[in-house]
TrEMBL record:
<dbReference type="InterPro" id="IPR019884">
    <property type="entry name" value="YtoQ_family_protein"/>
</dbReference>
<protein>
    <submittedName>
        <fullName>YtoQ family protein</fullName>
    </submittedName>
</protein>
<dbReference type="Pfam" id="PF11071">
    <property type="entry name" value="Nuc_deoxyri_tr3"/>
</dbReference>
Amino acid sequence: MTLQVYLAGEIHSDWRNEIINGARDLDIAFSAPVTDHAASDDCGVAIMGPEEEDFWADHKGAKLNAIRTRRDIARADLVVVRFGERYRQWNAAFDAGYASALGKAIVVMHPPEHGHALKEVDAAALAVVEHPAQVVQILTYVLEGTLPR
């Protein structure tokens, strides 16, 4: 049976492709949020019409993105949540909390200096790593029971 993996969090680096390429020989179906930042921000006003205030434009976009995110997290067997170095990813923390509330297996990825700030998120995770290659190793172990060579 295909493992369903949702890749949540930071959208400013290539970490998702590193995991997808590293796991290409595994039976995994990946899903993710829209990673085109402009499209993600503008989806609400592009589909439902303009707003005079940025707050309401963002509100519309957040709600549309939540439809996709909720569906994909609900379908996932495993949720990988990446917190990047530069940006505060409130959405990543929310995704981790939502996944935890649904009882999903969570792998959190972040640099070591974020350990204190993310201690509650890390406590909900079944694994905490720093690099995409470690996520690939976890996926390989889960599906094949083998350790890295």
